[in-house]
């Protein structure tokens, strides 16, 4: 298959109320659609949160990257990744990784669809289901009663692990997590995610107090690229320290691994450069005996998670459910790997009509 046409687009989607940190929170999905001479199409996307920065990623796609993809064979996906990285890596880390991710995901989608495979199978599938934790219903803005009700709802659906967002008011977080633990009992795992909100002293203080509730991990407690602070926390606190959702390359993860600063690696393929780089990070985790739990965008990450034996958890975050034709299915606390060709994400016509901005 040869790529004969490329398109870019933006979908500005409202964020789910139960997870957002402020009113009118949005995610901008910056995507590409690649067309081949055999009539197949592949789609991929990255995302930015709220700031309107999607136009910068789209400009890089339109002006620099997509012209270099035009006319290329689909089977050269890995070579294309390296070429695009080489011509953009001096920009730093950020929009170049996002733009490459959109193209790389679309290429993998095309490869799988051309072979009649699910993307998980194309990546080297080792399981047909992945353990998951319920997420997206633990906003720090939720009243405690609603937080408890939504967390319990995940357990009623069969999940044995849930995530609670913390960090806006550390003192109040103690009682919020206490209430969730009391409601869910001792057997359910509770993850706590501070979303980079804390400084090191506060993270140490709060982590020691959350230990009372046997939390399963403390996620992104401090600024995401601060290796030394994560290392201090990993040395000082009893629970695993996890992170990586805001890192943009495997090289950044290497620094954390060498410093023994993270126990579980959490890449987001929309930010690190797609499946090609996501596989490297998963294998990095495996080689060092670390956990692996790809972050957000469950519909994409299910395929990566199913292709790696060391996957600890998949984040079940039903952000895209109302915007796509076939949401993910789950059973007994596991996400089932879709069997349809490619990644299987197809946005509804209503979504395109209402939310497309570019």
Can you describe this structure?
With 358 residues, the chain is of the alpha/beta class. It folds into two domains: 3-116 and 349-355, Enolase-like, domain 1 (2-Layer Sandwich); 121-336, Enolase-like C-terminal domain (TIM Barrel), CATH 3.20.20. The protein is built from 13 helices and 13 strands. The protein has helices at 54-69, 77-88, 95-115, 119-123, 144-156, 170-184, 200-210, 227-236, 250-258, 269-272, 275-287, 298-306, 349-355; strands spanning 3-14, 26-36, 41-49, 129-134, 161-165, 189-193, 217-219, 241-243, 264-265, 291-292, 314-316, 330-331, 334-336. The two termini are 27 Å apart. The relative contact order is 0.14. The mean pLDDT is 96.
Largest beta-sheet details: 6 strands, parallel
First and last CA, distance: 27 Å
Radius of gyration: 20 Å
Compute the number of strand runs.
Answer: 13
The order of strands across the largest sheet is: 5-6-7-8-9-10
CATH topology of the largest domain, what is it called?
TIM Barrel
What is the mean predicted local confidence, pLDDT?
Answer: 96
Structural class: alpha/beta
> How many domains, as an integer?
2
CATH superfamily name of the largest domain? Answer: Enolase-like C-terminal domain
Quote the beta fraction.
Answer: 15-25%
Helix content: 40-55%
What is the 3D form? Answer: globular
User: What is the CATH C level class of the largest domain, in words?
Assistant: Alpha Beta
């Amino acid at each position: 298959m040869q790529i004969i046409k490329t398109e870019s687009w933006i979908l500005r989607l409202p964020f789910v109320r139960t997870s957002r940190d402020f009113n009118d929170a949005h995610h901008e999905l910056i995507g590409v659609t690649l067309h081949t001479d055999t009539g197949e199409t592949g789609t991929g996307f990255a995302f930015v949160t709220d700031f309107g920065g999607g136009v910068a990623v789209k400009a890089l796609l339109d002006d620099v990257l997509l012209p270099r993809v035009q006319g290329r064979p689909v089977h050269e996906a890995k070579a294309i990744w390296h070429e695009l990285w080489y011509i953009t890596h001096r920009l730093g880390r950020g929009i170049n990784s996002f733009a490459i991710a959109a193209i790389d995901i679309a290429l993998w989608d095309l490869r799988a669809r051309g072979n009649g495979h699910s993307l998980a199978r194309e990546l080297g599938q080792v399981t047909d289901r992945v353990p998951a934790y319920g997420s997206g219903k633990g906003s720090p803005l939720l009243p405690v009663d609603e937080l408890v009700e939504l967390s319990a709802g995940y357990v009623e659906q069969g999940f044995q692990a849930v995530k609670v967002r913390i960090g806006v008011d550390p003192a109040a977080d103690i009682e919020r997590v206490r209430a969730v633990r009391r409601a869910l009992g001792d057997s359910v795992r509770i993850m706590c995610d501070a979303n980079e909100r804390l400084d090191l002293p506060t993270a140490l203080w709060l982590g020691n107090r959350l230990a009372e509730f046997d939390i399963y991990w403390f996620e992104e407690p401090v600024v995401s690229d601060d290796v030394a602070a994560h290392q201090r926390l990993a040395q000082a606190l009893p629970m695993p320290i996890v992170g990586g959702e805001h890192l943009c390359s495997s090289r950044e993860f290497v620094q954390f691994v060498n410093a023994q600063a993270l126990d579980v690696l959490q890449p987001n393929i929309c930010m690190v450069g797609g499946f090609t780089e996501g596989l490297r990070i998963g294998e990095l985790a495996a080689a060092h005996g670390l956990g692996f739990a790809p972050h957000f965008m469950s519909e994409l990450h299910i395929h990566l998670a199913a292709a790696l034996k060391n996957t600890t958890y998949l984040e079940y975050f039903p952000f895209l459910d109302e915007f796509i034709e076939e949401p993910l299915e789950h059973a007994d606390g596991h996400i089932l790997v879709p069997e349809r060709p490619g990644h299987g994400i197809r946005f509804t016509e209503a979504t395109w009509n209402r939310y497309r901005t570019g």
